[in-house]
Structure formats: structure tokens, C-alpha cells
Backbone:
């Protein structure tokens, strides 16, 4: 109903919110009322399709012992905002954040994948990442394509010797990284392109093998 009422003419991003609506100034989650709302907007490219240049952020991803980072907690996005603005104001498109243990965590609002020697590596949940739906989709698609996916800690130095790196998220879909700091990545991106082509076909409901991922709406 929400989508039909808005009658989008292109990609339509939907974001649901659950929030505490009780009046008061004490920080608490007990004895409060909650409410729910949804907003949506027509979305052009969230990031440039041709790829982005990334800075290693001076801001660290929060730890899971401080916030439940597997979910989209609004308050956690202040760090993402600081990292993104720092990157843009210093001439880059996007930020890559490390965790407090010095391992690669994620970008300002996307998960990260590194391709090397024909395999995909991505930080695991112990690296304080968002448990992203698109991340999970990418892992499934890659394995269905016969590409080995390894979830493990990733060092910064691995980004500087990678064959390919891409970001993924609901809005970003799959966005290749062209450069990390001063390291220019190869222009040939066979793994990134295979997964992007497959995901695009699924999103556009052109792949019968993944129809249970899609919910068509007649406008």
C-alpha cells in the first residue's frame, strides 16, 4: 500500500523506523512506549557506478560490546557520518573504518568485500560489522557462482594488494572501489562484475532461480 500510494517511477528506497515515543529525558528503554513509521524516496545512484575512491578513516567503528552493531541502530550512525564527511572533505568519495582491534570493519554505510587470487574475503561479525542483508545476498550469489567466500579478519595491508574491492548495501547495491588512499586498484574486475550482473538480474526479477527473494508489486 505504501509503495502504491507513492507511485514511484524509479528505484524506491524504503526505510522503516521503530522509536521510543514516550516523553521524558531519562535515557532508558524500559517503561516506554514505542512507535513506528516508514519513509521512502526515489533514489538515483547512491554512489557513482564507475566506482569510488576511499580514505582509511581516522574514526573507528564502535565495538559490539558498546552497541548491538549487527542491527541498524540510528545512534550508531554518528560515527558513519563523521567518517563520511571526513572522507569527502579530504577529496575522497567514501570512508573505510577499522575496528578498535586494527582490523577492517566496514564503510560508512556499506559492507566491504576483497577479491584476491579468485577468492572473496569479507570481515566476519566479530569485526563489529552490520549484519547486512545485501552482504548475505552477495555471499549466497558468489557461492552459487562457484566463488569461494571466506569470512575472517582483514588487515589494512590486504586492501593495498587486492585484485578487487567492492562495497555493498541496499542503496549502494554493489559499488567497486577504484582507489584506497594512494593504491590504484586494477581496472579488470571479473568477480565484482559477475556478482553485480547476477544481483541486478535478481533485483529486476529476471532470474527465476531467486524469485523467492523478490516481491512484485503492481502499480
Residues:
Amino acid at each position: 500500500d505504501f509503495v502504491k500510494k507513492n507511485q514511484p517511477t524509479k528505484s524506491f528506497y524504503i526505510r522503516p523506523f521503530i522509536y521510543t515515543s514516550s516523553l521524558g529525558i531519562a535515557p532508558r528503554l524500559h517503561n516506554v512506549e514505542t512507535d513506528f513509521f516508514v519513509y521512502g524516496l526515489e533514489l538515483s545512484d547512491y554512489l557513482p557506478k564507475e566506482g569510488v575512491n576511499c580514505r582509511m578513516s581516522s574514526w573507528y567503528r564502535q565495538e559490539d560490546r558498546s552497541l548491538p552493531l549487527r542491527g541498524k541502530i540510528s545512534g550508531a550512525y554518528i560515527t558513519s557520518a563523521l567518517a563520511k564527511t571526513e572522507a569527502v572533505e579530504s577529496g575522497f568519495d567514501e570512508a573505510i573504518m577499522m575496528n578498535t582491534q586494527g582490523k577492517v570493519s566496514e564503510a560508512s554505510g556499506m559492507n566491504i568485500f576483497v577479491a584476491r587470487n579468485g577468492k572473496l574475503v569479507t570481515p566476519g561479525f566479530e569485526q563489529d560489522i552490520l549484519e547486512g542483508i545485501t552482504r548475505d545476498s552477495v555471499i549466497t550469489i558468489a557461492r552459487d557462482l562457484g566463488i569461494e567466500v571466506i569470512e575472517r579478519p582483514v588487515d589494512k595491508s590486504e586492501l593495498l594488494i587486492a585484485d578487487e574491492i567492492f562495497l555493498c548495501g541496499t542503496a549502494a547495491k554493489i559499488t567497486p572501489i577504484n582507489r584506497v588512499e594512494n593504491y590504484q586498484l586494477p581496472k579488470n574486475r571479473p568477480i565484482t562484475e559477475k556478482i553485480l550482473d547476477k544481483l541486478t538480474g535478481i533485483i529486476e526479477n529476471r532470474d527465476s532461480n531467486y524469485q523467492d527473494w523478490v516481491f512484485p508489486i503492481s502499480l
Notes: The chain has five helices and eleven strands. The CA atoms of residues 45 and 56 lie 23 Å apart. Helices lie at 2-6, 77-89, 133-144, 156-159, 190-203.
